[in-house]
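Task card 7
Instruction: Convert sequence to C-alpha cells.
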Amino acid sequence: MSRPLAADLARMWFESGVPMYALLDGASIPDLPDYLRRSGLAHVCLYRGALAPDLARAAPYLVRFAAHEVLARDYAVRGWGEHWGVFFSATASLRELRRHCRRFLMILGPQGKPMYFRYYDPRVLPVFLATCDTMQLRKFFGPIRVFYAEQALAGELYALTLDDGSLQQQVFRFGLTPSPSAGNFVAPGVHRV
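Output:
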C-alpha cells in the first residue's frame, strides 16, 4: 500500500486515545526480533523462556506502539497484504496483555493433542471469532476493546468489537466512495461498508 494508508490507519487507530498494540507473526515478517530490537518499541515474545533462534524468528510478539512510531508506517508501506498480524486497542499493561494473549496459543486438536493456534493471523481471527459463543467471546476479548484484521485481497480492514456479548464487525475499505451509512468512526479516505 502507501504512505496515505499509514495516515488513514493512524487516524483510525489513535483518534480514541486508547493505547494500540500489535500481535505480530514472526513467521510472516522476516527478521522480526531484530526489527523490534532496532525499533525501540516496547515488545515481548508470547513464548516463554530462552528460545532457539529459529523458533524466536517465527514466534508471535506483542508490541505496544504509538501513531508517530515506525510500526504504523512500516505496516502500511511494507506489511499490508503480508498478514503481519492483528492490531488492537486496550487499556491493560503490556504485561497483563501478554498473560491474556498467551492463554490462547495452544488448543486441543481433533485427536486431543495440543497444537499451536495462530489466531494472530488476520486471515484466521475473524473466522474464529465468528464461531464463538458469548462466553467464549468475552473470555477471548478480555481487556481488548477492538481488534483490527486486514483482509488485504479485498482491500479491507475489519474492526471486530464485542457489544453486549455479541460480535460486531465493521468493514473499512480504502480508497472507495463513502457509503451513505458510513458513521463517524471512519477516517478520511477510509469508508465503512
